[in-house]
Amino acid sequence: MSVETKAWLRCYRCWSTDLEVQVHYEGIHRIDPATGERAEVVDELQEAVVQCLDCMHDQPHLGFREGRVEPIEDRWERMIAGTPWVASCTVTVHVDEVETCSGPEAGDALSFAAFGEHGTREFFTHVRFHKHDEDRIVVHLLVELYARSAEEATEVLEAAARGPLTITSLAEESRPPAATAEGPAH
Q: Are residues 39 and 120 in the same domain?
């Protein structure tokens, strides 16, 4: 493994290199009537999630393509070299963007409505509350994300927001201690 590879092939939270990829595959294949073997791929879908086995966090800075884990270019440097930032913010979305705003799935649904996949895969979000305002919903959240500066954290939040964003506070947190050869710090 090269030094360049080691820079991104680790957990962005605890620095462990004990990772696994969970691959989910669905496919529709035609069958050759003479051999019984797969003849033609009609449709296939593969989804993969890389997870740290030490702290159990998903690794949204890593993807899986053609049998290999690879860094996702627009986020791996920010997540590995950055520190955690916590933002208190609101995102205003159209009511049709929210799948549900009550019950056990409400937090994920409101986070997804506010920030899309970033809100459910990359950011750690906590929906504090939400308010209905005619055909809009104002979602109040605490968001933890990784960035190299306050400016970059703001840019990432603005790019991910699926509606008007207001950041009321933004503070840098300390990064958890790096994992050692014996395992992650506790």
A: no
